[in-house]
Design a protein that fits this description.
Largest sheet: 5 strands, parallel
Number of strands: 11
CATH topology: TIM Barrel
Strand content: 15-25%
CATH class: Alpha Beta
Strand order of the largest sheet: 7-8-9-10-11
Helix content: 25-40%
Structural class: alpha/beta
Radius of gyration: 19 Å
CATH architecture: Alpha-Beta Barrel
Order of helices and strands: EHEEEHEHEHEHEHHEHEHEHH
């Protein structure tokens, strides 16, 4: 069995001064606080403390060995997306961070798998950078769950997703830029409350906005953090779809019939929640994801799956087979 962690992030050890390059404020930058520690800054505001696990392949490999992980799929931390910037600036950022990710993975002894980022606010540029990523050996891309007020049922985003399907690129959707304002500023409520809601909103939009109906069935798309609150509130959406025609939007079938159109990762951190997630989504649609190396990630990668008491063939699917198939590497 090959164990694959689909959901991990990185920051480069260094990157160009984007504020100076583009002449606008509040770009992400790194403040080094020691050999193994740093603070990601947004302009002069502290955003997130990080460690060398973000940029040091040797640290990542040691942690993978500790947890019995064979392959780790690495994507950018969403604060690097630059979706709110001019498209040409976001394109340059995508190239900078995609190249840095390739450098990191080149030191991973074949065990680190990169998936890139694109300037999703511009469909043509996003398709162009996707093609470059694939040509450089990446297996797909990570995208945010929205671009400003444009959600995943937006025509431009659907066009990009169709291009991903045509090229066989896997798509990992990660929530970012959470709603809620000042009510969620304390106690990391944006991460614990708004992130799951963001992902649920995006899945609802893809279903009710008709995105899945417009996209080919061979699109491989996976949503982070267990699909957020979607599966746990599916009954509410299903009930509303059947009882109120205005809920149906542009969807052609009830919400529950779209469960075979997407995957989710396992990052729900609770065995009871994971067993329910597998029951709803099916054992072929849940993929190991840890959110490594951040503090809110799974402390020992794969431990929740292994604690659930699944049948061996189900556990093998969750720990690796499903991710291999999602990435187009092998598997059922």
């Amino acid at each position: 069995m090959t164990v694959v962690d689909l959901h991990s992030h990185f920051f480069p050890e260094a990157w160009p001064d984007l504020e100076q390059r583009f002449g606008t404020p509040d770009w992400p930058r790194m403040r080094r606080d020691g050999a193994d520690h740093a603070m990601v800054m947004l302009g002069r505001k502290e955003f997130r403390p990080i460690t060398s696990a973000c940029w040091d392949a040797a640290v990542r490999l040691a942690d993978m060995d500790r947890d019995g992980v064979d392959l780790q799929v690495i994507s950018a931390t969403p604060v690097l997306f630059a979706y709110g910037r001019p498209a040409e600036h976001a394109m340059e950022c995508a190239r900078i961070f995609n190249d840095a990710l390739l450098d990191l993975c080149s030191a991973g002894k074949g065990r680190l798998v990169p998936i890139g980022q694109v300037p999703l606010q511009d469909t043509d540029l996003a398709c162009r950078e996707l093609e470059r990523c694939l040509a450089d050996g990446m297996k797909g891309v990570q995208i945010g769950n929205h671009v400003g007020d444009r959600d995943l049922d937006d025509d431009g985003v659907v066009t990009f997703l169709a291009h991903c399907a045509a090229l066989g690129a896997a798509v990992f959707v990660h929530p970012w830029d959470m709603f809620g304002g000042c009510r969620l500023e304390e106690w990391m409520l944006g991460w614990t409350v708004a992130m799951p809601a963001e992902t649920q909103l995006s899945l609802n939009r893809m279903i009710l906005g008709g995105a899945f109906d417009r996209l080919p069935r061979d699109l491989r798309i996976c949503f982070a953090h267990g699909g957020g609150s979607f599966t746990f509130l599916l009954g509410r959406l299903e009930n509303a779809w059947h009882r109120r025609d205005i809920v149906r939007g542009r969807s052609t079938a009830p919400p529950s019939t779209y469960l075979d159109r997407f995957d989710v990762d396992s990052a729900v951190y609770d065995a009871r929640a994971l067993r329910y997630l597998v029951d709803v989504m099916g054992p072929s649609s849940v993929l190991l994801g840890s959110d490594y190396p951040f503090p809110l990630g799974e402390e020992r990668v794969g431990s929740v799956i292994r604690s659930c008491g699944f049948e061996p063939h189900v556990e093998h699917r969750l720990l690796g087979d499903n991710a291999l198939a999602f990435l187009g590497l092998s598997g059922p």
